[in-house]
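Troubleshooting log. The previous structure file for this entry was overwritten by mistake, so regenerating from the original sequence record. Sequence copied from the archived sheet and checked twice against the printout by T.R.
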Amino acid sequence: MNVSKIHADVVAVLQQNPDKVAGRRAAIAALKLGLAQELNPPLPRRRRAWFSTTQSQTTSAKGGARVQVLGLDAGELRFEATAHRYEFHPNAKLFPEHRGHHWAWSKSADDAKRIRDYLAKCEEHPKASFKNEREIQWRLANALGRKTPALRNLGPVKWHGRATEIGVSINKKGDIGTGNIDLVVRRGAGGDRGYLVFEVKAPGDTNIEAALVQALRYASALHVEANLGSAANRANYNAVFESTSTAKLTIGAVVVMEDSASVRAKASRLLAQYWGTTGDSPIDRLGVLLYRLGAKGTLSWDWLPDWDARQRRPKARGQAPA
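Regenerated output below.
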């Protein structure tokens, strides 16, 4: 497997399914209109709870978000226009005893206590863990662009002020379907700007090749959907991805994986090999962002040496970094 073949395979599958691609482009166009409308008040914040926006809420200009606690889908925050407030709806599938319940996120001391008690219950759920892949994903989104040296000049694409997963029309196996990009990340400063597809993997996952292929497939699908349509389509994607440009998106692929000696060795070998097989692929950067997970859930970040996707790769294709 190589970068050029991965890209060619994705293009071939999408060319055979033009309706699927057209559907994704239509969804982005609708999302652009939704984002252009005046949304409800900014989403609230809460320590140790992460909020991710959904396309359906944003296209209809309704404030709202999914709420995750230690990787657990805790419920949904919805803006209730009649009451002019956000209300929290707990996940009744995980906690059937709360079916039909909803509580005011603010303006009610009693409801605030119910929410705190419920979120504390979520933290005790067997599936809730600081090692959960989704928890690491949202903590990374929150950390991008901050003081951590490895994360400077990076920022997640956001809808309604919160990070989100972004769908493409191919799944991780390379078949037509729906794949969710964990994070689309804006990179660069000045005139050197672009986007990176981040694929986040849970602690203990060492299959760097599968993760890299998945990230490359999603990046290639995003290139087809965003760049190979009309100028209006390109403008839609730029707007949704928080840019005023109408140019083609430059897209790279990044794997985010727990740091280990074996991952470093395999990743260095694979990326050097893959970079020599880019051919006609438009994917302009490859990278591996490594994390270390502390005993209490603290995270530290670093790039695989020579494969920091914020930096340009050698101009001559087939030449690995020195």
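The longest strand covers residues 72-80. Archived copy saved in two places this time.
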